[in-house]
Amino acid sequence: MAKTRKSAGDSRRGKASPARRPGHTRFVLACLLPALVLFAVFMVYPTVNVFRMSLYTWSGFSPDMKFVGLDNFRHLIDDDQFVRAFQNTVTLLVVVTVVTMGMGLFLAAIMTRQKLRSRNFLRFVLYIPNVLSVVVIAAVFSAIYDQNNGLLNSMLRLVSLDSWQQVWLGDQKVVLYSVGIAMVWQSLGYYMVLYMSSMSSIPEELYEASGLDGASASRQFFSITMPLIWQNLRTSLTFFIMSAVNLSFVLVRAMTGGGPDSSSEVLLSYMYKQAYTNSSYGYGMAIGVVIFAFSFLVSLLMSRATKREPLQF
Amino acid sequence: MTVINTPRPPATRSRIGRVLTYVLVIALALAIAVPVAWVLLASLKKKSEFFGSPWSLPEGLRLQNYVDAFTDAHLGQYFMTSVFVTVLGLVLVLAVSVPAAYVIARYEFKGKGFVELLLLGGLFINVNYIVVPIFLMLVDWDKALVDVFPGGFFLDNPSVLSLVYAATSIPFTIYLLTAYFRSIPVAYEEAASIDGASRFRIMTRIMLPMARPAITTVILFNFLAYWNDFIISLTLLPGEGKTVQVGLLNLFTAQKAAADYGRLYAGLVIVIVPVLIVYAFIQKRLIEGMASGGVKG
Predict the structure, then answer these.
(1) Which of A171, B39, B197, B294 is 20 to 30 A from B134 via CA?
(2) Is A51 exposed, middle or buried (0-12, 13-18, 19+ CB in 10 A)?
């Protein structure tokens, strides 16, 4: 009976051209078009435009738009502020990634292996920063870092470590790391929970067997846990780098404005400065293209460098 | 017979480890709880109280800061804008993504491979880079329609902001829903089809209810993304109407300059509390969703 033959059933059986009930195409189009149109207008077209605009000098609102080819990119190399922003982004990414991933793995491992009774409560608390908005985090950390009345400095006074007090957001040498700590604070819980969920699916027998053979906890971590969650770790690393580029931007914007003296400028904040503050839209978009290429390249390199044979359990 | 390979007594080993673990984890939990609690307390302080020790308790239950934040700083009004934008965005993204995901999961059609690839590529497009061209595009549209809407239509329009939220979360939403639809057995649809149900009816009456867990996950993730968004709303609502996050940032700048933090902390609490309440209810689901599809290996 032709009526019962649904295309889905056919595709499941692997037929190339399924028998179709009348109206098949119309239904597919009706379901698909709204999403595709929205996606094309607000994502594909603007993305193409980023690349196109990077080849022009343009103040945004005047019709005066001049094609300059790759000139914008050439200028970037001589732009000290851009170079600074690039270095800052790389430094932040390296430091924050290493710290967050390291601590996240460590915490996940001990919380999975030691059967803590309060595990669920701790998981709940540690995940909180991840549901807060970046503006909230920026405001909370500004309060923590406040020079006179901030939590951090007054805590140091309390334990008589007065000499450790800092102008956390006003010192060129420190400010980048102050922002970095806020980033770790925000994302640690997320990655911890992510690793916990993949670690908890590792069969207990593996640990029991290796324990009988006398393997220490750290040995178990490196020889059992790490190899078995490796794929998960790789994916989260790529994901983390992407999100860290964005997170750093909003934090910098809200907490320091890139200062003092562009010592905390990151790529995205500099892009916005060029586009909106300087009205150099073409130049700003060239920075956007660099960020695109940079994130893509880093992800690619990461995924190459961390490739291993997948393990099963 | 003696056992050669005696396992180390687990009790002593894990007792030390357990104590260390507790100390470490509690320290971290405090590092998260203390700042949040501190903001809560500080939101009750008067201006003069900010010059004393930051550890002092507020003198009383003083809610004036909240009143000020709600009315003078317009946070109440911004709050309602955020609620509107978030809800409409969720409705829109589901209205377009659920049918699309269903069709991709179940139907064969020309160009399907291309559509899937395109949407997958969309997962890597980040809104932060493309919000400038989106802004300029809306400026152009307003210019083109200046005869019909002299005051402009697309910029400073919360509904358009919802539309942009919805559009930019389509790849993620479809990705998650498609995977879920594929995991539902085809037999249900075949049975309904034999009974003579139309395609539309099968989709809305059979598949939609069955996909409820995936739809909930999608709502949760998109809710957090829309509610917490700052960049898109900052750019697309440059006028008087703002979302609560942008309003908070303005308050932040103003209060910092005036060294008067009470209103700011009250504003922070106003923004934090709804999210924490939602989170408390949904945390299990959120964490499950994250493990199953948020970041897929």
Answers:
(1) B294
(2) middle
